[in-house]
Task: structure prediction
Amino acid sequence: MIRIAIAGVAGRMGRTLVQAVLARSGDAQVTAGTTLKEDPQCGQDIGLIAGAGALEVIAVDSLSACVDDFDVLIDFTSPEATMQNVAFCSKHSKAIVIGTTGLSDEQKSALERASASTPILTAPNMSMGVNLTLRLLEMAAKALGDDVDIEIVEAHHRHKKDSPSGTALRMGEVIADSLGRDLNEVAVYGREGIGDERDRKTIGFATVRGGDIVGDHTVIFAGEGERLEISHKASSRMTFASGAVRAAIWLGSRGPGLYSIDDVLDLDAN
Ligand SMILES: NC(=O)C1=CN([C@@H]2O[C@H](COP(=O)(O)OP(=O)(O)OC[C@H]3O[C@@H](n4cnc5c(N)ncnc54)[C@H](OP(=O)(O)O)[C@@H]3O)[C@@H](O)[C@H]2O)C=CC1
Ligand SMILES: O=C(O)C1=N[C@H](C(=O)O)C[C@H](O)C1
Result:
């Protein structure tokens, strides 16, 4: 039985993660959860915070306060909080699953360094559908090559802080790699005013923020006379949470290393 702690347990993903662990049949347990000290839910039962009934586990304001209570931490918070949590997990030999997006290149390098002594699994999107979409994008990019213009459009709820989404950026990386391009050189983030004609080698990103959109991603491969669009639309955060819990259970029996959700999901099984 894996003992799971959830960082940011009062957040949108934190609450859904509690429900996702409860939905499993006895191979995992939520044994700890953190909130910020100033959060009004700090000190409350995390089951009640998640709207799932009391679990007799109280939300605490730091990982130090629950260090003996968990094996794997699941972290969907903010880049700053995630990096502090990685340092804590490294020091205390805990595995960590990271869903937080918007990490800088420097923060990603720090994750790589920490993974020499800590099991770390990170993915900008833990859903089966998105990770299958990444495979389809690779196939489409290779087949259509340099004959199309490629644009990535993503839409999320009004509270989302990072843009473009981590998933959109990963989609861009997969497509750029498939075409032998460097995303840092070819990405165009939004357009405004009068500019030059589109350069075919570029990969465009467009961001929509509004209401309660859970997460939509569409990649457009626009050619002459036809265009192909590959879309994924999430309608529930449970798709991300159940992937993350599955990843935590998998990571619980792994040694140090930097893993991805591809290592966990059986995308080739069916
Ligand atoms: N990989 C994936 O599949 C997915 C990734 N995400 C990513 O997960 C992250 C969180 O998203 P979401 O749940 O919507 O955001 P929320 O803002 O709802 O949740 C984040 C929570 O973390 C809390 N928090 C921040 N710092 C700390 C800290 N040091 N200790 C404890 N709690 C802390 C926040 O508190 P407060 O509100 O008080 O600041 C908040 O409750 C984002 O980066 C998002 O992009 C989201 C969905 C899927
Ligand atoms: O913030 C969110 O909500 C989401 N963030 C992730 C991202 O940035 O890609 C994944 C998902 O789309 C929801």
